[in-house]
Batch of 2 targets.
Target 1
Amino acid sequence: MGVLDALGAAPGLAAWALMTGVAMMNSGLSTYESLLMGLIVFAGSSQLAAIPLIAAGAPAWVVLATGWCVNLRFVVFSAHMRPYLMHLPLRERLLTGYLLTDLSYVQFIRRYPQHGHSPEQLQAQQAYLAGNCGLSWASWESFTVLGIVLAGLIPARWGLGFAGILALLGVLLSLASSALRWVSAGVAGAAAVAAFALPFKLNILVAIAAAVAMSLMLEAAHRAKSARAEPTP
Amino acid sequence: MNGETDVWTVLVILGLTIITVLTRSLFFLSSRPWQLPGWMQRGLQYAPIAALAAVIVPELVMTQGQFIHSWQDARLFAALAGTAWFLGHKTQRQAVLGTIVVGMLVYLPLHLAWGW
């Protein structure tokens, strides 16, 4: 199941990996540096943020701080994933964390809104993650390499990377299962545009915070209203 | 083959890898028993869709950090087409795949042939 879900988004991920590979080569990283970065960093958005800084010769701490901030949304995800993973030994938790991209996290949470309680449930969730992350990793890695090899042949102006955005859009739509989630998406989208000028892509974090706060407030208001409508003895 | 490989860049790449692991695992590094407060657990069900919207929307309506001034933008039409397709097929497993394919079928001609 994890593999099938990942397959649905795979063309978008592949196009994005391809364009990241091309972008690394065009920024003036050497072939070996591009390969190394594509193979081990495994984080498209932080790679894309780091590439121009490395090319401009920015100090290492600036590049690393940028990578950290661009990745901050994963800290939120890791809080969410904790109850699903704590039964594993540290080494496996770290491996899972390393492989857990936005798409895998979102698809996993959609499939398993509640963490498992029995060993069988946990096992099934584990298997889903292994399949989903495994396929994403393989397609990301192979298309990054392809992008590095074909860098000279694929002009950036074709905009193939847009397929990655469409993949995220499709997954977003599959998550929009309640009115409050639509509100959350709307608030986050607007906040991300409004706060776009923030450095280090912190607009994404601001947007998540604003959307979650707004949804929680509406949820509380809704509960208060229905409690008034049917007074409990 | 491109340029020369230098040690500084390789070290930065290794550092970025460590950051990938640390940020994605931060809340499950320690195995001490600990639970999120209830309001935060409820809030987290709205986080995934918020994160996606926060990444996607600026990519659709902004260029070089500026809000777009024209509706003649291939991205808008591609996103609309992809969304329409998804909403018509959301019970199917591969609805996400269709969103990508339909979106790109709208995007590429508009972008490359019309220059939108």
Target 2
Amino acid sequence: MNNILVVDDSPTMRRMVITSLGSLRRVKSTQAGSGLEAIERLAIEPVDLMVLDLNMPDMHGMEVINFVRKHQAYRNIPIVVLTTKSEESSRTEALAAGANRYLTKPFDPRQLADVVGSLLQTS
Amino acid sequence: MDKPTPDNRGEFFDQFLDDYYAECDEHLVSIRRSLVTLEDEVDGRAVDRALLDNLFRSFHTLKGISGMVGLAAAEQLAHHLESYLRELREGAVVLNQSGFEALVSGVSLLEGVINARRNDQPIPSIDDMVDRLQAISADSVTSEVPVSSTEKRETDASVTRWQIEFTPTAELAERGVNVNSIRARLQEIGAVVQAKPVVKGAGEIAFEFIVVTDMDQTALASLEADGLTFQPAPVEPAPRTREILPSPMIAPASVVRVDLDRLDELMRIVGELVISRTRLEDQVAELKRVTPPAAWRLLQETNSTMGRQLRDLRESVMRVRMVQLGEIFERMTFVVRDLARENGKKIIVQLSGGETEIDKFLVERMTDPLMHLVRNAVSHGLETVTEREAQGKRSEGVLSLSAMTAGERIVIKIADDGCGIDRNLVLARARAAGINHENAEIDDDALLNLICTPGLSTRTEADRESGRGVGMDVVKKATEELGGRISLATRIGEGTTFTIELPLTLAIAEALIVSVNGQRFAVPQSGVREVLEVESASTKVLENNEIISYRGKVLPLIRLARVFEMNHQRGERFHVVVVGEETNAVGLAVDRILGQREIVVRAIKDPLAQSRGIAGATELGDQRVVLILDITALRQLAVTSRH
């Protein structure tokens, strides 16, 4: 069973993402409403993939990517950035920091599930 | 490549519409709260950075979720508001009056767009607003004043910086001890100036907080139990100190949103349980004769324990339905601010008791009526600056909104220190409208009744627009339909206070069960003043009305048997349930008082079964229907029959 951590400060958005991932087999989801909460989830349970929003209170998504990529234990967790389309520069920045994929909102549920599914298979 | 196919996306995301509206409401509340604070900083040198961050994030989220549900107008409008906020945040523009007003109108339009979608109405055009927002970002002079962060630098010698380390574990999370709860506890001790994750030697994650406080370390000692360690922090702050602010919009993962319908269903089931237990109670009472005393006592004890537990369950469900009034108060503040500017008035709004909780259903029903009273206070109650100064009053009018709980009821007051209601003017209007009122001297109650008469308005045509279609008659009706009561106190030149009393919740109430002609009725306990036993011979008839003397005054009697057209044999003695206020109390004449019960209120929806004087129905466990009396309507019946 793969554990996907869905990080977004909007509870509605988290539900949308989790429901979209419902079509994947052998997958369960955990959620976090801020960057700090996301890091806490990592400490508490094994996470196989992260779907990460960027613009969040407390700890920006970019800081989460930097933290995760810097530390041996979490370095290999695939990260799918899912953020509201606004700054194109953030795509380059996020990918450079180590995000595996960069998707924008509004997102297509099937596309999100496909991306997450294929990352889980190859990781 | 990221573009989804719109058709299937629409269907998929429709299932989240309720969540979407709920989250929009939360953000709009938070935005309004921030805007009220922001107004004080218009043209100021430094705008509170945290405030701008919160606003920015709310618009950003609204944009994101609106895009997901395909509400393009809201998405775009939120986008332009967000862009303007970004410029403010980056210091590219200075917040001036026109910018602030554009923000306020933009937010109102955004709310309008979202509500239009919610109510299946045509979506208003956002084009003009978008132009306006673009114009202010382009036209505003580039600022030389950087938007400064309001970071607190503690220089006081009595404060200490503590470095606290928290290591999260699954066990702690299970007990509700997590990074959010720890931070909340630290915020009670002092200002949390930093919160960052660190990785310890063995790859273990911990969080490092820096708290500035004037408390000594005993305040921190309680944290040790949860495995936290603390030590004085290094004097120099870490190079990237970020001020961590309490952000009201974080919805922790442990909070669940529930549709009100589901709570209604839960309340309905609790209601069924209350009825079943009443039935059980009757059966236990009947068993007393045939059961050995010891066994019966045990049964009785279990029964009362269950009664207590059921009451706890009922209260818990009720608590879930409660929301704070503060949210609606803030919306009012927003309306007041807008109206005051339109009318050239200066108004200080004082809020108190915003933390008072009330059933969500009641809030929804009362929002428009309360808003109407507030609009009235601003448009008609409070005077302009010139008028006030001419009377020697301070130039700012004061509008105070307060709420408090009093027993099972909640009291909301809307008070202004304006010009008061002119009785003579109201009387003149009443006569002109063909409503007769003999007395030239009328008290506040009579005045309230007059201004609540449908069709009677002291407003001009233009004002009518500001009332948005809700008149005083609607305010009174809405209050009374919810089992509430409205009262008025006004003095010329000094101001007006409207007081609204509402029950905390509707579904289950305490009631007095009475019988008339073998038929049982429930009288809601909240309206009952007293119960009297009266001899038939002591009643008098005055102008076709039956009365008794009560505490030195005359109390009109309402014979329920007559109201509901029952064939009634009068006994020598009967009971009178006194209901209503001191000044307009009436007595309900009944045969017997059967007791006091907890009843489950059900509305009668079938128009054929609806009857004046009946508020609803309930059952008491024997599966026979008991009608619940509508005290307000009965009192009115008594008043009209007098004329």
